[in-house]
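Need a sequence for this fold. Nothing fancy.
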């Protein structure tokens, strides 16, 4: 998945409205999610190197698609504080308290997966990333979903285990059984 622009789709009519371009430009394989208030966060991903033939570069940057205003009728992307590490192929979802979290990823194309996770707080003037407990196993190219105060993380190259993060106690558990690798 490559993100440069996003589209707003009216499901009742099928009409699509082009949204503003990201500040960073092209992001390939970022983590992203729609917050409970309707804004969209996009974090990390790969971008092209500066010169022809350069390797793709994993990003630390993150941005949020803000609400429309008179000056920006489709909204605008605003840069956020950088994550603690570069992340591409990471999974992203919204926690039960409305914060955006990223799980795993890689810091270079073809690199080893990460076990680290972090969560973004956006509360008025407060905009910061905080670490979450690391996952039991490093993952990249994984998926996550938040359900009932838990985040279920699965997938990753060759990984058959699915892990659950219990938000209230800040603890990881492994689901019983194995699942086919992604």
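Here you go.
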């Amino acid at each position: 998945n490559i993100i440069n622009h996003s589209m707003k789709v009216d499901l009742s009519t099928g009409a699509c409205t082009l949204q503003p371009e990201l500040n960073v430009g092209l992001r390939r394989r970022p983590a992203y999610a729609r917050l409970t208030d309707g804004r969209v966060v996009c974090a990390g991903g790969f971008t092209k190197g500066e010169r022809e033939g350069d390797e793709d570069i994993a990003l630390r940057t993150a941005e949020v698609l803000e609400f429309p205003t008179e000056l920006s009728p489709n909204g605008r992307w605003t840069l956020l504080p950088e994550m603690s590490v570069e992340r591409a192929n990471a999974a992203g979802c919204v926690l039960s308290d409305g914060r955006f979290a990223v799980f795993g990823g890689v810091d270079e194309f073809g690199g080893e997966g990460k076990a680290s996770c972090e969560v973004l707080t956006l509360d008025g003037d407060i905009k910061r990333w905080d670490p979450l407990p690391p996952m039991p196993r490093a993952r990249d190219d994984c998926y996550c979903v938040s359900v009932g105060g838990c985040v279920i993380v699965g997938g990753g190259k060759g990984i058959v285990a699915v892990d659950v993060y219990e938000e209230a106690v800040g603890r990881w558990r492994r689901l019983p059984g194995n699942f086919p690798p992604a």
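For context: The CA atoms of residues 102 and 140 lie 11 Å apart.
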